[in-house]
Design goal:
The chain is of the alpha/beta class. It is built from five helices and five strands. It has a single domain, classed as SPOUT methyltransferase, trefoil knot domain (Alpha/beta knot, 3-Layer(aba) Sandwich). It is found in: Cytoplasm.
C-alpha cells in the first residue's frame, strides 16, 4: 500500500525538517511514503478566507486520483490511540486499499469540496498545532504505527 502525505506549503523550520526527514527515512523499511508539498498560494491578501480555501482545494483535488482513500487531518476527525491508528492502517492494507492520501490543509482549513471527497477525517489531538508541527507529529505516529504492527519495541505503554 502506498501512502501519500499531501500538504500545502513548505516546512520552514530546520528542526522540524530534520525530525520529519528522520521519520521518513525510518518509514522506508515499512511502506512506500511520498511526501508532496504544494506551493502556498501567492497574493492571498486580496482573497477572502473562503476564496483561499477554494483555490487550495483546486490544488489538492488535482493531486488525488479517484482510487485514493483520502484522509483529512482535521480537528473534527476521529481520535485514535496509536494502537488504534496502527489497526486502522493494518485494516486498510489488508483490504482493497492500494493508496492512502493523508492531507493537511492550509491555514483556514478545508473547502467543503475537499470534505466531500474525503473518505475519513483524523484528528491527532484536540489541541491546535501549527501546520508545520503537525507534519512532524503525523510522520512520527505513522512510524509508531508500523513499529506496533511489526511488534517492535519503539512503542511503550
Amino acid at each position: 500500500m502506498k501512502i501519500t502525505f499531501l500538504t500545502i506549503g513548505k516546512t520552514e523550520d530546520a528542526y522540524l525538517r530534520d525530525g520529519i526527514d528522520k521519520y521518513v527515512k525510518r518509514l522506508k523499511h515499512y511502506t512506500k511514503l511520498e511526501m508532496v508539498d504544494l506551493s502556498e498560494l501567492k497574493n492571498t491578501k486580496a482573497l477572502t478566507e473562503p476564496q483561499q480555501k477554494v483555490k487550495e482545494a483546486e490544488l489538492l483535488l488535482k493531486k488525488i486520483s479517484p482510487l485514493d482513500h483520502v484522509i483529512l487531518l482535521d480537528d473534527k476527525g476521529m481520535e485514535l490511540t496509536s494502537r488504534q491508528f496502527a489497526a486502522f492502517l493494518d485494516k486498510k492494507s489488508i483490504g482493497s486499499t492500494t493508496s492512502l492520501v493523508f492531507i493537511v490543509g492550509g491555514p483556514y482549513g478545508f473547502d467543503p469540496s475537499v470534505y466531500e471527497r474525503a473518505n475519513d477525517k483524523l484528528s491527532l489531538s484536540r489541541m491546535t498545532f501549527s501546520h508545520q508541527m503537525i507534519r512532524l507529529l503525523f510522520v512520527e505516529q505513522l512510524y509508531r504505527a508500523y513499529t506496533i504492527l511489526k511488534g517492535e519495541p519503539y512503542h511503550h505503554e
